[in-house]
Write a structure and sequence with these properties.
By secondary structure, the protein is α+β, with helices and mostly antiparallel strands. Helices cover 31% and strands 15% of the residues. The chain contains 18 helices and 15 strands. Helix 9 links the parallel strand 2 and strand 3. The longest helix has 36 residues.
């Protein structure tokens, strides 16, 4: 508070008796100064007294009210305010206008808008048919399908999206979902979409738009149409029916599949065979083998886990025994290049496809001067067409238990859909730089039946990069584990050197 002390000096008091009232009002000046900016007092014509003010320093009162804390912003609050709104067809039309505005005329842009941007809300509202979708998106892989499903979250709105690929999703589950519910968008791979259509699980009568993920490239810079994967289960359907009859086990059946490479496949080219819906991860199937027998030892396989594929009824042992060996993939696949009017067989390498440790450590033939005599007294497995010592009649070092095809098959897969290395293209003459673009033909000797377990067979032509195949998980895991182990080694070495110096210091004491 500020205290004011007023001293009034009145001159000529006796000359004007009316100034007594002024003196009384001057004594109340303290109140008038305190009520500053209030209603102005009525001024009378009188002589103004002279005032003198003595001021004291202000004394600030301590405020007892604590300052309010500012509320911290949370990430959830920010995300709620900045949440992406569902897109509308107008957004896509604006993007098209911006992208093609310089190169297209007004009429062409209008036609583009009408063909690419339909009235999606109306189509979605009118779609009530089960076992069908309005829009079908086809991608090259399951991982790419998941990426597209996540990216279309803002645009799909209330639409229901169905995953149509084979990774960890059985075809029966997808068929049941299509029968029970109504879906507007389907995103999947060509193989699974084809299988659903063939088994009447997916109907395309209500499908208005089909989108191909054409320009997306994988880690090897390949597009969807650049990956030559040939499904010959249907194209060799006659041979498949022929193999269903067990009496035709010793008869041959051949079929051909034509395809076209639009671009060259440069570098080392690998040929794989793929199987679908073949479960090698069953416990009894995995242990159904005799490692001692595969090492070339003369053992009693009846005490092994090979049952029931151990011996025949007459007591003759099977070589090799077990369910894994009995179900070995035995199709013969040859590749031919159609150049102009001539047909050239592509040279394929049968050896060098297995791991060195498997070829030289885990698998060995019995010691004998003749391989046929080494397997005397044994018989081939029931589903084999020839004995084990005739797996490769052209190369004696690639027959018996050390045959590359046999070794690769004995390494079982963890999933129902898998592929194994079958051959490598020998880089000579026309194929010194890889496979040139052109027309090709697969000639297949159909021996492996898949119709009984509703499986499918594929042939895949592929290349590899410095990090391996198309699945980089194993390479990344090795690199990260090696880096972590190296870093831990440096840290432990530094700690050891530091503690060793302290130890010698205390020993001297």
């Amino acid at each position: 508070m500020r205290n004011r002390f007023t001293l009034n000096f009145v001159r000529d008091a006796f000359d004007d008796p009316s100034d007594d009232e002024a003196v009384e009002k001057a004594s109340d000046s303290k109140t008038t100064h305190q009520d500053s900016d209030s209603k102005p007092a009525v001024k009378k014509k009188r002589k103004k007294p002279t005032e003198c003010f003595l001021s004291q320093p202000e004394v600030k009162q301590e405020t007892t009210v604590k300052a309010k804390k500012r509320k911290k912003k949370k990430i959830s609050d920010i995300l709620q305010k900045t949440a992406p709104k569902p897109g509308v067809p107008a957004d896509l039309q604006n993007l098209l206008s911006q992208h093609f505005g310089e190169n297209r005329s007004v009429i062409e842009i209008e036609e583009l808008k009408l063909s690419v941007c339909p009235k999606w809300a109306k189509l979605r509202r009118n779609h009530k048919e089960k076992k069908s979708v309005v829009m079908l998106v086809i991608c090259s892989s399951a991982l790419r399908s998941l990426e597209l499903i996540k990216s279309m979250t803002a645009f799909k709105g209330d639409c229901r999206v169905l995953k149509l690929f084979a990774k960890h999703i059985k075809i029966k589950e997808q068929m049941n979902m299509l029968e029970k519910g109504v879906f507007h968008i389907g995103v999947g791979t060509p193989g699974r979409v084809k299988a659903l259509v063939e088994q009447d699980g997916l109907c395309l009568n209500s499908t208005k738009y089909m989108i191909l993920d054409w320009n997306w490239r994988d880690q090897k810079l390949r597009r969807m149409m650049d990956i030559p994967e040939i499904d010959y289960s249907d194209k060799c359907s006659d041979c498949s029916k022929f193999r269903e009859n067990s009496s035709n086990w010793n008869k041959e059946c051949h079929c051909s599949v034509n395809f076209t490479l639009k671009e060259d496949i440069s570098g080392d080219v690998f040929m794989y065979y793929g199987l679908q819906n073949f479960y090698q991860n069953h416990r009894r199937y995995v242990i159904s083998r005799s490692d001692a027998q595969l090492l070339g030892r003369n053992v009693n396989i009846q005490k092994s886990y090979c049952a029931p594929f151990t011996t025949y009824r007459n007591g003759t042992p099977m070589a090799p025994c077990g369910a894994i060996a009995n179900s070995m993939f035995n199709d013969t696949i040859d590749l031919f290049y159609n150049r102009n009017s001539s047909v050239i067989q592509v040279p394929l390498l049968r050896t060098g496809n297995s791991w060195w440790t498997d070829k030289n450590v885990k698998f060995r033939n019995p010691e004998s001067y003749n391989l046929s005599s080494a397997f005397a007294g044994t018989a081939r497995p029931p589903y084999w067409q020839k004995p084990v010592y005739l797996l490769d009649e052209e190369d004696e070092r690639n027959t018996g238990y050390v045959n590359d095809d046999f070794i690769i098959w004995m390494r079982v897969s963890a999933f129902a859909t898998f592929r194994n290395l079958y051959r490598r293209v020998k880089r000579i003459r026309h194929f010194a730089d890889g496979l040139p673009a052109g027309n090709y033909t697969f000639r297949i000797s159909y021996n492996f039946p898949v119709s009984k377990f509703k499986g499918r067979k594929h042939v895949i032509l592929s290349t590899v990069v410095w990090s391996g195949g198309s699945n980089p998980f194993l390479g990344i895991a090795y690199v990260v584990s090696g880096a972590a182990a190296t870093l831990a080694g440096f840290v432990i070495t530094a700690i050891h050197l530091k503690l060793r110096k302290k130890k010698t210091y205390f020993q001297r004491q």
